[in-house]
Amino acid sequence: MVAIHPILMNAVTIKFFFYVNEFEVDAINWDELDVLQRELEIADNSNDQDLNSVKNGCLQLISDTHLSIDEQIIPFTGSTRLIQYVKGKPNPEGLKNFVLADKNGLVLDIFIYQGKKTTIDHDDCEFSLTLAESVVWHLSETVPPKTCLYFDRYFTTEKLVQILLKKNFFSTGTVMKNHLPKNITLMSDKAMMKSNRGTSKQYVREDKKMVLVKWFDNKPIHLLSSESDKEPKDTCRRWSKKEFKKIDVERPNCVKNYNTFMGGVDLCDRMIAHY
């Protein structure tokens, strides 16, 4: 890597003077400059210091007892190997960031995704972890025990919920079908969709420390939780296509808690968009 100082990027003439390792390079034209910009990496250690300052500032904030973990895209269209594209995000292109936040959008910790080769140190964990599980493990290191963590189906596995229990953390998350516990015979989606909207089924592990709840809203969804089960139920307002109006739909307690505490990172994104 070659350190360059200074680079006169805003010069109005076609002559640029670079000082590379204290040797002056003659003036070059625009085409040569483009090649130089693509081939050289500019070392700027202040970026790492700025990132650490932001992270340290987040770690000094007072933590809530219910926190969410989610991915975030920091809008960026410059040239870097860290650029990611995530379909469905308000700003789909940019730097991918994993965020720990409370329900009010207050960011408490961050972890920058560095591509498929991203590695996270979890030597003190007795299990082999996927990247998603490692992210939750890493971000949970900075919060006090007995905190309730919420995350979406990208992260949730039975193994992760169990690991967090051993660390004295409670958790709730939506879960993909291919990550559901294998020893449970679930009510089929087809059978559940013949039932009334709001129907739910609960499956409790033998030690009663973890539950799987299947709930029919617009479609069946699955949640794994070590923090709450489906009781006590409440009702939520949903739009009915058949009746062309909002109706009351019965909702399990774990779904209510998930909806209450999971949206912190999305709220942070909306607040950042104003700047």
Q: Could you please describe the fold and organization of this structure?
A:
There is one protein chain. By secondary structure, the protein is of the alpha+beta class. The chain contains 7 helices and 13 strands. The strands form 3 sheets. Strands 3, 4, 5, 6, 7, 8, 9, 10 and 11 form a 9-stranded mixed sheet that branches. The chain has a two-stranded antiparallel sheet with strand order 1-2. Strands 12-13 form a two-stranded antiparallel sheet. It is globular. It starts with 17 loop residues before the first strand and ends with a helix.
Helical fraction equals 10-25%
Which blocks of ≥5 consecutive residues have pLDDT under 50? 1-25
Total E-strand runs: 13
Number of helical segments with 4 or more residues: 7
Globally, the shape reads globular
Mean pLDDT: 81
Characterize the main sheet: 9 strands, mixed
Distance between the termini: 34 Å
Helix/strand order, N-terminal first:
EEHHEEEEHEHEHEEEEEHH
Beta content: 25-35%
Q: Given the helix and strand composition, which structural class is it? A: alpha+beta
Task: Describe the structure using short key phrases.
275 residues; alpha+beta; nine-stranded mixed β-sheet; 27% strand; disordered N terminus
Summarize the structure in short:
This protein is an alpha+beta fold and 275 residues long.
Per-chain topology:
Layout: E1 18-20, E2 23-25, H1 30-39, H2 46-59, E3 66-75, E4 83-85, E5 93-101, E6 107-112, H3 131-140, E7 148-151, H4 158-166, E8 170-174, H5 189-192, E9 200-204, E10 211-216, E11 220-225, E12 234-240, E13 245-251, H6 253-261, H7 264-272
Parallel strand pairs: 3-7, 7-8
Antiparallel strand pairs: 1-2, 3-5, 4-5, 5-6, 8-11, 9-10, 10-11, 12-13
